[in-house]
Amino acid sequence: MKGGRILLLLVCSTVITLGVFAAGPPTCPADLGGKCSGSGEWEGEFFPGIPKIKYEGPSSKNPLAFKWYNAEEEILGKKMKDWMRFSIAFWHTFRGTGGDPFGAPTKYWPWEDGTNSLAMAKRRMRANFEFLEKIGVDRWCFHDRDIAPDGETLEESNRNLDEVVTLAKELQGTKIRPLWGTAQLFMHPRYMHGGATSSEVGVYAYAAAQVKKAMEVTHYLGGENYVFWGGREGYQSLLNTDMERELDHLGRFCEAAVAYKKKIGFNGTLLIEPKPQEPTKHQYDWDAATTANFLRKYGLIGEFKLNIECNHATLSGHSCHHELETARINGLLGNIDANTGDPQIGWDTDQFMTDISEATLVMLSVIRNGGLAPGGFNFDAKLRRESTDVEDIFLAHISGMDTLARGLRSAVKLIQDGSLAELVRKRYQSFDTEIGAQVEAGKGDFETLEKLAMKWGEPKVPSAKQELAEMIFQSAL
Ligand code: XUL
Ligand code: CO
């Protein structure tokens, strides 16, 4: 296999796997050279025999039931479904093939006809809505090019998108809406140097046109947010890169997006999704703090929030909780791409979250944030390559939803118990004194503090009680 192909496939294993392998039954690849033909005919259900998934409680042994997620149950004054605001990621669930950099696709969903035709795109959209209905989720997320095939020209791509989106709007009915939409600015070769940060102004213009259209269709579908993930907005080498100029271009691009959003009356939140690298060696939106600094520098605070993805957090050397808290304390927590990485694998494995401790920490941030609305939890997560039954799509989402629901319950237990908050309160109580309050109010000048330090002598430093904090946390799980 050639090096270039390996790189291309690596990218696609993260988002949408290319169907470049000749062997095996045909799938409908999202690649550019895929043959586009096929009919839209499909008789009956896409998921026959799978009922609407219900809550049966923790003692249920039924794999096709929720054990912890009880949509209508009220927790801390809000229904569970309103805390969670779950969303299905179209690209993983309906375009993921199980292919990876070393292997051919493994998933051959029965409704796929091996083409990337418009008819196939529409059939797949119908499958999406049957899935949403059965899993009991009211939101979905998409890239423009996941849902409709690329055309020979931008005009043709836009027409394809319009056709699929018209059907999606009809299928959404009154209940279902996109949590967010986005433009795919990373797969086509034109974006090899980036979109908004490309060295070529023609590419910048093409990217702008694609985002314009993707914002329009997100608005048309009643989307609540619009996401910018700059997978190729970064660099491979600083030797041939004018970083300052590229970042200025990205800032201008974001300004233009704000202006267009206002022009079309789209009231959704604009979100930037940080990720440190992959596919680019260094992505400009490295993590929450870097992205917050970018927004401040370009005067975009107040116009954008952040979409924190847990697997991206760990790739940047942080925990998901750290990224969520960094976003939250800066007033920037807008949405969560709910997934997790693997401690032994160094790339973006996009797994469904199954760790209750991690989910509890995530939900602590969400509760402290007062919820995520108009954001939510998008399952930017895919089935493992070896999970090949249609039923596995349900099992994966049920397990992800139950894990986060269990995290919510544990977080509430922890808050209601109060001992962790008390431990933290005591830790900082010296700042509740008169001089501490002065410091916090910005009145702690160095001369006054020096006098106090001399008067008080060596300070007595209390224990941080870290192990006790861990014990309290564990007992809430
Ligand atoms: C890639 C990723 C994307 C964004 C949307 O790692 O997370 O799917 O969420 O482009
Ligand atoms: Co994501």
From TrEMBL:
<comment type="similarity">
    <text>Belongs to the xylose isomerase family.</text>
</comment>
<dbReference type="GO" id="GO:0042732">
    <property type="term" value="P:D-xylose metabolic process"/>
</dbReference>
<keyword id="KW-0119">Carbohydrate metabolism</keyword>
<keyword id="KW-0479">Metal-binding</keyword>
<dbReference type="GO" id="GO:0046872">
    <property type="term" value="F:metal ion binding"/>
</dbReference>
<dbReference type="InterPro" id="IPR001998">
    <property type="entry name" value="Xylose_isomerase"/>
</dbReference>
<keyword id="KW-0413">Isomerase</keyword>
<keyword id="KW-0732">Signal</keyword>
<keyword id="KW-0859">Xylose metabolism</keyword>
<feature type="signal peptide">
    <location>
        <begin position="1"/>
        <end position="22"/>
    </location>
</feature>
<dbReference type="GO" id="GO:0009045">
    <property type="term" value="F:xylose isomerase activity"/>
</dbReference>
<protein>
    <recommendedName>
        <fullName>Xylose isomerase</fullName>
        <ecNumber>5.3.1.5</ecNumber>
    </recommendedName>
</protein>
<dbReference type="InterPro" id="IPR036237">
    <property type="entry name" value="Xyl_isomerase-like_sf"/>
</dbReference>
<dbReference type="InterPro" id="IPR013452">
    <property type="entry name" value="Xylose_isom_bac"/>
</dbReference>
